[in-house]
Design brief:
Layout lengths: L1 E5 L2 E4 L4 E8 L8 E6 L6 E6 L5 E3 L7 E6 L4 E6 L8 E7 L16 E2 L3 E6 L1
Parallel strand pairs: 2-11
Antiparallel strand pairs: 1-3, 3-8, 4-5, 4-9, 5-6, 7-8, 9-10, 9-11
């Protein structure tokens, strides 16, 4: 499975961005998918996750402002980010889990496949 993240960029505080993650290869083996982010000097942290059936989980720091979704037919994962803040600045990574027993996960180590990351910069 290969993941390709895109959609990042520079935006002013209060603005919006939509991230995309396209999956290719053995996509039938993908179950939960998620977004993580890593700011300079910090560890990669959980942002949001979605199950194959559409169940979602969010980090408290972005809840209400961000929305995760997926289109299984198009093998695409999305992250709609609204009301962006300077502290949202980070490289955002998409990830996929191949464990069919797990609907979704908030844990970085549960994900088998990772995209290359897309930079999001929010100016204050």
């Amino acid at each position: 499975v290969q993941l390709q993240a895109s959609g990042g960029g520079l935006v002013q505080a209060g603005g919006s961005l939509r991230l995309f993650c396209g999956a290719s290869g053995d996509t039938f083996g993908i179950y939960g998918m998620g977004w993580f982010r890593q700011a300079p000097g910090k560890e990669r942290e959980f942002v949001a996750a979605v199950s194959r059936g559409g169940d979602t989980s969010y980090s408290d720091s972005i809840k209400v402002r961000f929305t995760i979704s997926r289109d299984n037919a198009r093998n695409t994962l999305y992250l709609q980010m609204d009301s962006l803040k300077a502290e949202d600045t980070a490289v955002y990574y998409c990830a996929a889990d191949s464990n069919r027993r797990r609907r979704l996960s908030t844990r970085r180590n549960d994900y088998d496949y990772w995209g290359q990351g897309t930079q999001v910069t929010v100016s204050s």
